[in-house]
Amino acid sequence: MVLDPPLPKPLVGRLTVIGLGLIGSSILRAALARRLADEVVAYDHFEPVRSRVEALGIADRVAATPEEAVTGADVVILCVPVGAMGAVGEDIGPHVAPGAIISDVGSVKASVAKALAGQIPDYAHVIPAHPVAGTEYSGPDAGFATLFQNRWCILTPPEGADEGAVDLLEEIWAAMGANVERMSAERHDLVLAITSHVPHLIAYNIVGTAADLETVTQSEVIKYSAGGFRDFTRIAASDPTMWRDVFLNNREAVIEVLGRFTEDLFALQRAIRWEQGDALFELFTRTRAIRRSIIEQGQETAAPDFGRAHD
Amino acid sequence: MVLDPPLPKPLVGRLTVIGLGLIGSSILRAALARRLADEVVAYDHFEPVRSRVEALGIADRVAATPEEAVTGADVVILCVPVGAMGAVGEDIGPHVAPGAIISDVGSVKASVAKALAGQIPDYAHVIPAHPVAGTEYSGPDAGFATLFQNRWCILTPPEGADEGAVDLLEEIWAAMGANVERMSAERHDLVLAITSHVPHLIAYNIVGTAADLETVTQSEVIKYSAGGFRDFTRIAASDPTMWRDVFLNNREAVIEVLGRFTEDLFALQRAIRWEQGDALFELFTRTRAIRRSIIEQGQETAAPDFGRAHD
């Protein structure tokens, strides 16, 4: 897969990415590949990560401080764990330029909007965003330029947000290959609770349950994991700090959806106990249709076993 | 990936496969490719499936009846849903040859052993087996010869089983690329409850919960499924009949493991409610190690996102 060629004219003068993990480093790569800005600037609070990005050559310039990173930037994208947004906002707030767009990629939106609103001066535009994309790997080496291709990026502009600024942020994401949607932060947090947060929680949980069983050894769990269990271990290998923050910052929606999940699971357990085969068959048939739709809409591969090699 | 070349000398005279779906048709393909028997015979109770296998040319002979299929067979492998084993056993019982090995590939073993024991005469050897392998696709077109490569196949010979017969069955599976392990049917059913059955149930359940939520539309679930949800839809697209039978036939172990899963999930939910970030972080870190082991032991790919194409 090759990205489209660089834009004939960059969309902005200076684009700054703060936090250079999987997502941040993917934005850098996509921004350079498509030349979205005259200058693409990178910063991470962790020095080895800055050095690594320097060595990878995926930014025009690696800044040494948050101040240096955001000074003169037209667009700043924060790619740090949701729980760190307030602190980063505090670091950069005094240095952002009037009219600059301050955005992020956090998986929770209402709490990020709140954390940044207190730190970014009114003369800049805070427009939270969330590209629904990723892999189970972390760090600057894990990123790649096509990560956002045909994935959805959700913008959650606050009420009264500057339309021009929202449009420009949308153009940037579209240029990185994403489909862009707008909704309220609250709606985002509810929708993502079911499509991402609760699935991650369940995956972490089943992997933990399997590890803790006294009646089945860990070696057995590993050997026979191809029976289905291994599918869950992928998202349960995602970044622990990021996911801790997601759950702490989207508590209400996660607990609400989890309540529904558990209720449904108890009903299913009861159907097994009472040998209600028809009820099981009906559910198991219905769920096939949903995967089919996901494949048809390009959000999943139709290859058997996700396209895993069978060798 | 290419299979090893055909054996210099087939292991048995006649190998019969009954039930020609994903697993059955994969056995046919592997058995022909490696020439495990002088003659590989196929039968399915559904006529269009027999015709399709005939057209695919993946058996030396497609039999028209169960009687014709098993007459003179040295080894018979039943690849039908677990709930159908008793009926198939009844059909073939009177026709199996003295000394023949009757095996299967069902995902539950104690109930299969019981169902077959009543139907297969004592002069044949009933040796249940379970290759822990598969994809989410079904039917004779979905099979492939390398499906069992480096996957585990569990034999659950009953007490007092003929050692020569068990060894021969082990050779057959090893020749199809599988690693073979032996254990009791009861232990198998407990181990598979955690590595396969409960993961499938949870996957079916979360997909059902997502479909039924009134507050989030199905179209939103599909659009943003790359946030994690889509991973669950793969195994929730597996064959409904097969899985209904698994749950009905492994009730006790499934309900027991499910009890542990739910208990752990409630603890996790409580940790979120009370904002116990350290507890979340600790679990989320621990689960990474398990995936690493699964990859190291060749039961999973290390490629990001299962190796899905990013385009």
TrEMBL record, chains A, B:
Pfam families given in the database record: PDH_C, PDH_N
InterPro entries assigned to the protein according to its UniProt record, in alphabetical order: 6-PGluconate_DH-like_C_sf, NAD(P)-bd_dom_sf, PDH_C, PDH_N, Preph/Arog_dehydrog, Prephen_DH
Keyword set includes Oxidoreductase: yes
Top-rank taxon, per record: Bacteria
Keyword annotations from UniProtKB, A to Z: Oxidoreductase
Residues in Prephenate/arogenate dehydrogenase domain copies: 13-302
The name this protein goes by in its record: Prephenate/arogenate dehydrogenase family protein
Organism phylogeny: Bacteria, Pseudomonadati, Pseudomonadota, Alphaproteobacteria, Hyphomicrobiales
